[in-house]
Amino acid sequence: MEEQMSLFGINRDGDLVPADAAPALLRADSQVALSNFLLNGQFRLNYIEWRLFFAMLACIEETDTEFKAYHIRVQDIIQLSDLKSGSHLYEEVANNIKSLMSHVVEWEEGKGDSRFAQLVHKAKYFKKQGVVMLQPHPDMKPHLLQLRKEFTQAQLQQCLRFSSTYTSRLYMLLKQFDSRTSGVRIMSITELRFKLSLDYTERLSKGKEVPYSIYPLYADLKRWVIEPAQKEIANTDIPFDFTPIKTGRKVTAIKFTLKGGKKLRAVAEKPAEQPQLTEVQAIAYGRMKKLGFTDFQIRTVIQHASTEEVHKVCYQIETTDWNTFGKPVNNKAAYAYGVFKKKFGLP
Q1: What pLDDT is attached to residue 110?
Q2: Alpha-carbon gap, residue 15 to 286, rounded angstroms
Q3: Which own/partner pairs from 343-347 qualify as long-range (CB within 8 Å, at least 24 positions apart)?
Q4: Which of 142, 219, 229, 262 sits CB 3.0–4.6 Å from 167 for a disulfide?
Q5: 292 and 259 in one domain?
Q6: Same domain, yes or no, for 286 and 334?
Q7: 94 and 141, same structural domain?
Q8: What's the structural domain count of the chain?
């Protein structure tokens, strides 16, 4: 029965379908990879958009030669991000999915030449199921598919845990230089500000351009960007120290020195064999799967509650259109998680 259930998942309409049409399973040790050309470009993503972008990268397989429509459960992102309360993320995703499609990355391509490309080609949020569909833009093929050289790789969970967009960026920029032969990266202040999108131009309607400069003073850059990032990255595999480099009395560059951090699994471990489900449990499993719960969450509930209780709560959720505050239930997945958490202490 377990083998049979593993062949199915939840589709965009909330129905059980063959696994290849279901959302991807995001693991803590899933890998994200992108070319160094793209990595060193200028991104202007907020921390929600970064989490969605990293989750999309983790869905891309080494053998892929074309991009697919990658389906991602918001609940998986919440779990891997170690958020104490992730219910707000469902609404945040709804607010940010459109802006993610509009983002353009800029990087240098040749001497004095700049290249611009869109990151995401298609995006859709299935609010009822709490599932996001993302498909990279075709321009991203050389930078995300079949990577063999000049690329940077990191573990998904490391990337998702950061609460600041600057930390996400700095982590990957330093990760590029994380190797046995090199643990130092020196960036000029101008280069660092470009890569962190601290200096940029907003193009408005009628051709009007408005320049922006965030934290123009080094003291503010250090206080609000570098030091908070250093604190967060200290708990990863590449904690770092930094040293300002001066030209005269002015700080013109920063030297980042990587230190040995937490050892991460280089490859995914073989998952422990799960106990076989009874036929009655398998039915409850499928019903919870349809509500958007992960395999781990379902097994946790089934292990500690009777299937009769599970079916009763599932029925309550399926037939409820209004919550206890008298407001309409627009997101069944988020509502279901809240009900099961209160009833069964779901993590």
Answers
A1: 64
A2: 9
A3: 343/309, 343/313, 344/300, 344/301, 344/304, 344/305, 346/297, 346/300, 346/301, 347/79, 347/297, 347/300
A4: 229
A5: no
A6: yes
A7: yes
A8: 3
Claim to verify: residue 262 and residue 301 sit in the same structural domain: no
Domain boundary among 161, 185, 210: 161
15-24, 121-130, 135-144 — most confident range: 135-144
Q: Where are the alpha helices (DSSP H) in 162-278?
A: 165-175, 189-195, 218-221, 227-233
Q: Same structural domain for residues 154 and 170? A: no
Average pLDDT over residues 114-138: 88
Mean pLDDT of 285-291: 82
Please report which helix (H) or strand (E) contains residue 114, including its range: strand 114-118
Range of the domain at 59: 13-161
Cβ-proximal residues to 324 (8 Å cutoff; 6+ apart), any chain: none
pLDDT, tens only, 206-254: 777 788 899 999 999 999 999 999 999 998 999 999 999 999 999 999 9
| H helix and E strand count, the chain | 15, 14
CATH of the domain at 185: 1.10.10.10
241 shares its domain with 288: no
Query: For residue 40, with 0-12 CB atoms within 10 Å meaning exposed, 13-18 middle and 19 or more buried, which class applies?
Result: middle
How far, in Å, are 26, 53, 73, 294 from residue 79 at the CA level?
A: 10, 16, 10, 10
Residue 240 is predicted with a pLDDT of: 95
Strand duo 151-155 + 31-35: pairing = antiparallel
Beta strands in the chain (DSSP E): 8-10, 16-18, 31-35, 70-73, 104-108, 114-118, 120-126, 131-136, 151-155, 184-188, 199-203, 209-213, 240-247, 250-258
User: Residue 80's CB: how many other CB atoms inside 10 A?
Assistant: 23
Based on the fold, state whether residues 235 and 306 are members of the same structural domain. Answer: no
Rounded to whole angstroms, how far apart are CA atoms 91 and 85? 13
